[in-house]
């Protein structure tokens, strides 16, 4: 099963290379001076994490890729404004979040944002296993935005809870509490599905 790894945290293997993302804040200064090697290095370091964060906001694969692209373009154009504070991921997440909310405001003026059912949703067509679709839909629909961010960042990137807390601007205890609350919601939902089946 694709997405069950985050439900049972003790069993979830985490890729070592994603556990500690250390971004040298000097990269932003270099990027501000049009150093494309520095930009490539930042992208390689953060690509997986930014995808997970984007997915927690947008809720679909293609939209996540689009948001990532917009975020990196914005980083490229705004890196000269970056002030070193020891939280480069938080700055990047803020950019992604602002771009996302801006696009939602724009879309809400022109389209109806009613959610579609997973069976008819072409955005999830790259996932072929129906159980995986149900679990992914559960994560995206049943959790709050912050819970989605925390769970997906933990499950997809392997970031530690402390790193997630620092990146999204919450205390470690709040992050852990929201993570465990999200897991409890998912377990209850999955158990209810099993009973009905």
Concise summary:
The protein has nine helices and no strands. It has helices at 16-19, 26-32, 36-58, 61-78, 88-110, 130-142, 145-157, 161-168, 172-196.
Commentary on this structure:
68% of the residues lie in helices and 0% in strands. Mean pLDDT is 76; it is low at 1-19 and 110-126. By secondary structure, the chain is an all-alpha fold. The protein has helices at residues 16-19, 26-32, 36-58, 61-78, 88-110, 130-142, 145-157, 161-168, 172-196. The two termini are 18 Å apart.
Describe the secondary structure blueprint for this structure.
Layout: H1 16-19, H2 26-32, H3 36-58, H4 61-78, H5 88-110, H6 130-142, H7 145-157, H8 161-168, H9 172-196
Helix pairs in contact: 2-3, 3-4, 3-5, 3-7, 4-5, 6-9, 7-8, 7-9, 8-9
The value of Rg in angstroms is 17 Å
Major β-sheet profile: none
Structural class computed from helices and strand pairing = mainly alpha
Instruction: Please mark out the parts with pLDDT under 50 across 5 or more consecutive residues, or reply none.
Output: 1-19, 110-126
Terminal CA distance? 18 Å
Q: Which assembly state applies to the chains in this document?
A: single chain
Mean pLDDT: 76
Query: Considering DSSP H and I runs of 4 or more, what fraction of the residues is helical?
Result: 55-70%
Q: Give helix and strand order, one letter per element, not per position.
A: HHHHHHHHH
Q: Beta-sheet strand percentage?
A: under 5%
Number of helices: 9
* Shape, principal axes of CA atoms: globular
């Amino acid at each position: 099963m694709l997405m069950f790894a985050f439900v049972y945290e003790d069993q979830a293997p985490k890729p070592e290379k994603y556990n500690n993302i250390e971004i040298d804040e000097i990269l932003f200064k270099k990027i501000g001076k049009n150093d494309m090697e520095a930009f490539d290095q930042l992208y390689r370091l953060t690509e997986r994490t930014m995808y997970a964060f984007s997915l927690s906001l947008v809720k679909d694969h293609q939209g996540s890729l689009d948001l990532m692209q917009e975020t990196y373009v914005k980083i490229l154009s705004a890196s000269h404004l970056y002030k070193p504070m020891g939280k480069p991921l938080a700055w990047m997440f803020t950019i992604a979040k602002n771009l996302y909310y801006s696009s939602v405001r724009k879309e809400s003026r022109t389209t109806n944002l009613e959610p579609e059912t997973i069976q008819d949703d072409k955005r999830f067509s790259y996932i072929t296993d129906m159980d995986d679709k149900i679990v992914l839909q559960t994560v995206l629909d049943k959790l709050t935005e912050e819970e989605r961010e925390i769970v997906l960042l933990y499950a997809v990137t392997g970031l530690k809870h402390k790193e997630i807390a620092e990146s999204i601007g919450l205390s470690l205890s709040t992050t852990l509490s929201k993570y465990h609350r999200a897991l409890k919601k998912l377990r209850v939902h999955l158990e209810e599905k099993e009973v009905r089946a």
